[in-house]
What does this fold into?
Amino acid sequence: MQIIRIAMTSLCCILASIIFSVCIKWDWSFILIPTLISLAVSLSNFDRISFPKKLIGILLHWFLSIVIFIITIGITVFILSPMGLYAMYVGSALAAILFTLITNIILIFPKFWLSMAIIIGLSVLVWPIADYIHAHPLFKFTLLNGRENIVIIWCSLVGFGVALGVHAQKDKCDRIS
It folds into this structure.
């Protein structure tokens, strides 16, 4: 694995979520979430984009990120809301799965199913971690005070999972065959 590249992609995703938290009062700030996370992943892995024209790949990733964001919000709010708090777990995992699928179009994951399992596992951890941080006064970071911490945690964990997926290397026996 390329630890520096994984750290760079993860840090870009954390930075994207922090920029969102600062701009949350803006009227159209909800569009910033998919925009910033897609740009963080695409630009930090620019050399790995599978499209011959890199700009088209970045724009496609951005557009599809906005589409899946709207679809996920719609499904979570309108269809899964009777599930209560579990709807948030499912919505977080659904957003991560869809984001992983569109990212795999732009940046190929060498070990797709392993990457998908890691990303789903990390996305399911978002709500328990966010609730713990919100409930315990031990954490006094100003960025994590409100419920916006969910976006920061989701972008951080899913960004880390995507970075692991993009930069995973195939085993030696996979390279031979």
In short: Residues 54-79 form the longest helix (26 residues).
